Amino acid sequence: MTTRNEQILPLEGTETLAASDILAVENLSISFGGLKALDDLSFAIRDREIFGLIGPNGAGKTTVFNCITQFYKPDQGTVLFGVESERLHRHRAHKVSVGSTDEPQDTEVVNLVGRKVHSIIKLGLVRTFQNVEVIPELSLIDNVLLGGHVDFRATILEQMFRLPRARREEKQYRAQALEVLEFLKIDHLKDELASGQPYGVLKKLEMARTLMANPRLIILDEPAAGLNDSETEDLAQTIREIRDRYHCAILLVEHDMRLVMGVCERICAISFGRFLALGTPEEIQENPDVQEAYLGEQESDQEGAQK
Amino acid sequence: MSKNSRITMLNLGSIMKNSHVHYIIFGLVLCLFPMMTSAGGMKNSTLSTLAFVLIFSIVALGLNLLLGYSGLISLGTAGFMGLGSYIAAYVQDDLGLGFWVAVLLAIAIPTLIGLLVGIISLRVSGIYLAIATLCIAEILAKTFEQAEWFTHGTAGKQSKYPTIFGMPMDRSSMFVVCAIVLVLVMMLTYNIVNGQLGRALHAMRSSEVAAQAMGVNVLKYKLFAFSVATLYAGLAGGLYLFFLRSSYPSTWNLFLSLNLIAMVVVGGLRSILGTVAGAFVIFAFPELVLKKLPVIGDASGLPYVFSGVMIILVIMFFPQGLKGLADLGVTTIKTVFSRKKVTS
């Protein structure tokens, strides 16, 4: 068992991460068959930053997500993540009360590569999905409670027989889930089943579920897809409010350029799995490489059409 | 109305809404049947049929946990149930260790075997899991025929009514025991599906990726659902033996496993009371009604034809099963009543 752990997980604490950073992707590469989906990609996200990841279709944005959250195992490279020592050692995050994170906390750096998919959320890293993955047969509040899954410390037997700890936790987390729903203004629907709810509500529900886990970094996979203009504006506001209230960083993959440029503090652009540029929205918009990746594509399309 | 009595009314109201209370009331109603029988209001054979409905309900509840909540399929349920019945007989009659040890081992050994099978076969899913469980059931079925020291082979294992707390059991009191166990199993199942455990199972069925992203260890919860299903099967197998006082290898075949699935589907996936209703329709209806019909009543295999027709009807018209039908009835009544209020 120990040898296996040593093999997969590099010794904790020996990795380096700049003091202001929460996540660093270093030299990440993965290929499917002969196709290199990611090629030596590196970037870092600062703590409490709203960070955008953009690129033309097929650039590998979702692949980056999947490599960070360990749905894919990268061929090469590391994903370093800063975790509060308290959370790491307890292994199960106890309730981190909102607003108490202002004082500096001890953090340790861990490499996510090789960890089990279901263990990632315990470190404070939660994601949403491009096609919302909520449970249609459960009510909204039950869906949100699922986000607190790793916080439940009552054992299976305690839950089966409704022993005091299981009952206490159920009550405590239900109240917390209701707070999250209130924050996202969908608490009036709490007992409705998720099936049949409009797309905008489901998107919010998925976000509520991530908040339930007291995240340090939320990864949003195309949150604006399928939303209309006013809903998208609403979303930008929500993303800022989440960051301010939950003191977490947000990594955003998005096609809607208005949302990305309006809400992100820094943006990383990639193309064909390779790093293109990193900077503020203005810098990215003026970057010739980025312009070529987006517009050059269009030119060659037009040429193709003329032929 | 005084303030005090209003508070009692409120308490009573919330108690009546509690599902556990519903199950206990249901159990109390069940206990009326043996009394009716002894008063001559019901035939002994009818009481036996109803007892088997209760026993099959227990297995079907485990299967609903597996199929309805967790989205896993097992074709080996009958095998585990048979194992429970033979263990109960062997421990009580051959080893002479009494009712409690017999029941405990009838639960523990199938659960343990189920756990081992689960560890190996739950890494595959869908059709492969179905085949793996079918193989186990076939192995068990052959074992029941061959291991004569344990099962008496095809001649069948004979047993006798147990003695519980010094009281010798008979048909009526065993019926009450079955009813009590069923109510306990219903309460336990309710606790499982209506807490974080249930949410994790739901997540696993609905979207494995989402479940994993939320920290649900999918293999652990699959194993949990599978072990509970085998636990219920072993328990029901033990009760079956103590009620019927015999067990034959031919009982524990694929048809029983399929019939158990039919009970779950017809009763309604993810419904506890629905499962019991499904067990009644699939098992008792052919016994009590169809077999009494002229001409077709004598046809062999009639219950299987009935199960098949019911499954087709349910899948085509009522995917929610009897539970969905009941819900539809309740909503219709409610709308009718609210309309009356508006007009008056």
Present the secondary structure layout:
The complex is a heterodimer of chains A (307) and B (344).
Chain A: H1 2-8, E1 21-32, E2 35-46, E3 50-54, H2 61-68, E4 76-84, H3 85-90, E5 107-111, E6 125-127, H4 140-146, H5 156-160, H6 164-183, H7 199-211, E7 217-221, H8 229-246, E8 249-253, H9 257-263, E9 266-271, E10 274-279, H10 281-286, H11 288-306
Parallel strand pairs in A: 3-8, 3-9, 6-7, 7-8
Antiparallel strand pairs in A: 1-2, 1-4, 4-5, 9-10
Chain B: H1 3-17, H2 19-30, H3 32-38, H4 44-69, H5 77-94, H6 98-121, H7 127-146, H8 148-151, E1 157-158, E2 163-164, E3 167-168, H9 171-193, H10 196-206, H11 208-213, H12 218-244, E4 246-247, H13 254-267, H14 272-288, H15 302-317, H16 321-343
Antiparallel strand pairs in B: 1-4, 2-3
Radius of gyration of chain A: 20 Å
CATH architect. name of chain B: Orthogonal Bundle
Overall average residue pLDDT of chain B: 90
Main sheet overview of chain B: 2 strands, antiparallel
Quaternary organisation: heterodimer
Total count of domains of chain B: 1
CATH superfamily of the largest domain in chain A: P-loop containing nucleotide triphosphate hydrolases
What's the CATH class of the largest domain in chain A, please? Alpha Beta
Report the count of strand segments of chain A: 10
Along the chain, the helix and strand elements of chain B come as: HHHHHHHHEEEHHHHEHHHH
CATH class of chain B: Mainly Alpha
Q: How much is the radius of gyration of chain B in Å?
A: 21 Å
Helix/strand class of chain B: mainly alpha
Query: Which two protein chains have the largest interface (Cβ within 8 Å of the partner's Cβ), and how many residues from each?
Result: A-B, 36 and 24 residues
Cα separation of the termini of chain B: 26 Å
How far apart the termini of chain A lie comes to 62 Å
Describe the structure in brief.
The complex is a heterodimer of chains A (307) and B (344). Chain A has 307 residues and is of the alpha/beta class. In chain A, 38% of the residues lie in helices and 22% in strands.
